[in-house]
Write a structure and sequence with these properties.
Length: 626
């Protein structure tokens, strides 16, 4: 079978597709075309006789300075092991026939048992048994989309859809020699992996591609794979497919098996934790939505850390540039961690423009997966427990929360009694939002609400903030929650099709939560602020420090809000509020708090617009009908 190299979503690009109609005497039965393809590479009898395969390849991530090796072992139908070593990044994945697993670059083991992985394994098993060749298969639908040029050669475009996941595969098969010229794998996250194949060689009566070029959208980075060895039907020790029996433990508590009541700051729906690194204590964001821990690029250089490679990563609604680095040993109150691989990105640009708290990094999966983490939002306290010695004795609700391929928990939640399903759990998200696919299918795109601009890794996007009644999670019921609805799919997490949406801190702040990575569970307890009506903006203004400057500037004005009616525009600089200069107020947060005052409060806001200074009357009002 063909070798398919899968790197984390962050990698891979593609030329424009040109689809032309079928012409002349070309074949029109997609199953016949697939049959010709399998005949061309050796025939089904020989393919089914390939019980095991070993492959070794050289890998280059084009334009990044990263290269290394890929080794792969397979045993039909689903057992596999893959080792990717790019020197600065190493990842091992496997499947022993019972479960899929990942060993990340810091040696942390994760068993994959989320719904998408389980369904994906079933699809691969059925494909490996060639069930897709049966026109009467209840699980696969094969169609001919037309023909398409691949490097100047005409190819049949065969689409293979399945009934388990909204993730089709397209095979582009040469119309003359019937070899596979290219494949396209569509994913539930909205990304696409495009692979072209060349240099076919006979191995045991089956043709294997010894040269592959991969491009992934939307991150648009190219991988070149040069196969140096393919062996089939070799004896493999079944243990090679098993995950490690002992997990990594690269941390130490200073006293016993826990560190409790660590002070945190819950500020504007983000959790800030103090981290000491090289004797320097800084604020970091605690983010269960970060697949790897990240350090600000400028701060990494200040610490003298070496940055290696340059990749394109997937953000909330777009892409971002990242590098790899090795963090020195660091500590959070009561616990020390060994040096770890991390990513470096421009975090200051992300947070510095929107927050008054200087942010040095993001504590993501590589930190949080080591512990059971308790977050008490109302009292701004965090506790860390050794997972092997943790036993919950409270009266909260324990929820099964499988980790997905992005290292994020997934949990069930129901909105308005009808909209039920799995949501991503993200402590780094300030708000809760539907994904576009679900919102479109459930008629949510036209719900009335207030437009808001959201910032995240990879850029900004505008969604409509809508009040939804009766939200049920973990056996608890909240009468009303604001949930954003995106107007379009975008290219990042908002395009995810297998999940309903993303849960954020506007919901979590009602609870005290425990994040148990080892057991893939989340525990919800009623927090001291459960059911409280939290302050909301009543102006329709969103402000920032553009470029990290000290001035306060308007970055978004929602249509139909008090700010819109008062005549504010994007780019206006706020100079004073009720004659109090902005410099005398305590930063962005103080201005935002003023905008959360009760409905009916009025301000005179002095703004600079070009060469003019204007004084606009702003009358606050409730933006949502609860």
């Amino acid at each position: 079978m063909q070798q398919f190299f899968h790197f984390p979503r962050s990698l891979i690009s593609l030329a424009v597709l040109v689809v032309v109609p079928l012409q002349g005497a070309q074949l029109k039965n997609p199953y016949e075309i697939l049959g010709r393809y399998y005949d061309a590479i050796g025939g089904l009898e020989n393919l089914k006789a390939e019980n095991t395969t070993v492959m070794v390849a050289e890998v280059e991530i084009v334009g990044t300075g990263l290269s290394g090796t890929l080794k792969q072992w397979e045993s039909r139908p689903v057992k596999n092991r893959q080792e990717l070593d790019l020197k600065v990044f190493r990842q091992v994945t496997g499947d022993n026939g019972e479960s899929a697993w990942v060993l990340d670059t810091n040696g942390k083991l994760k068993l994959l048992r989320d719904e998408e992985t389980v369904k994906g394994r079933e699809i691969r098993r059925r494909m490996a048994n060639f069930e897709h060749l049966d026109p009467d298969s209840p699980h696969f639908t094969v169609t001919l989309d037309g023909t398409e040029k691949v490097e100047g050669q005409s190819c049949y475009r065969i689409r293979i859809a399945n009934d388990l996941l909204p993730a089709d595969q397209v095979l582009l098969i040469n119309t003359k020699n019937f070899l596979l010229a290219k494949s396209i794998q569509y994913t539930t996250s909205g990304s696409e992996n495009h692979t072209t194949y060349a240099d076919y060689r006979d191995v045991g009566g089956v043709l294997h591609s010894f040269r592959q070029s991969m491009v992934a959208l939307p991150v648009n980075q190219q991988q070149e794979i040069r196969v140096t060895l393919v062996e089939t039907n070799v004896d493999l020790d079944p243990a090679i497919f098993d995950p490690p029996s002992v997990d990594v433990e690269d941390f130490a508590f200073l006293d016993g098996n826990r560190s409790e009541d660590i002070p945190i700051r819950f500020h504007e729906n983000h959790i800030f934790v103090q981290v000491t690194m090289n004797c320097d204590k800084r604020w970091w964001v605690l983010d269960s939505g970060a697949g790897m821990t990240a350090i600000d690029t400028a701060y990494a250089r200040q610490l003298g850390l070496e940055l290696e490679g340059k990749l394109t990563g997937q953000g909330v609604n777009n892409t971002m540039d990242i590098s790899f680095t090795t963090l020195p040993a660091y500590s959070v109150q009561g616990v020390e961690l060994n040096p770890q691989k991390a990513v470096a990105l421009d975090i200051e640009r992300l947070f510095g423009q929107l927050s008054d708290i200087p942010v040095a990094g993001i504590l993501g999966y590589d930190f949080m997966s080591r512990f059971v983490t308790r977050i008490d939002y109302a009292n701004e306290l965090m506790s860390l427990y050794h997972p092997g010695e943790f036993a919950y004795t409270g009266d909260g609700t324990v929820v099964d929360a499988p980790l997905n391929g992005s290292n994020m928990f997934t949990v069930p939640m129901t909105v308005e009694g009808e909209m039920s399903g799995q949501w991503r759990f993200d402590t780094g998200a300030s708000g809760t939002g539907f994904h576009f696919d679900f919102a479109e299918k459930n008629g949510l795109l036209d719900r009335p609400g207030i437009d808001r601009q959201h910032f995240g890794a990879g850029g900004s996007h505008v969604s409509r903030l809508v009040p939804f009644r009766k939200v049920e999670i973990a056996g608890f019921e909240l009468p009303s929650v604001l949930i954003s609805v995106p107007p379009e799919a975008g290219q990042g997490a908002l395009a995810e099709k297998s999940l309903i949406g993303n849960l954020g801190s506007n919901l979590f702040r009602n609870f005290t939560i425990y994040l148990d990575y080892a057991r893939q569970q989340i525990i919800f307890e009623k927090g001291d602020d459960f059911g409280k009506e939290f302050p909301e903006d009543r102006s329709g203004l969103q402000i920032w420090h553009p470029g990290g400057a000290e001035k306060v500037e308007i970055r978004f004005v929602a249509s139909g809000t008090p700010a819109d009616r008062a005549g504010f525009r994007v780019g206006d600089e706020i100079r004073a509020i009720n004659d109090i200069p902005v410099q005398q107020l305590d930063g962005l947060s103080a201005v935002r708090e003023l905008m959360q005052a009760p409905a009916g409060v009025s301000y005179t806001v002095s703004i600079a617009r070009g060469n003019e200074v204007l004084h606009l009357k702003l009358d606050l009002a409730d933006l949502f009908a609860h």
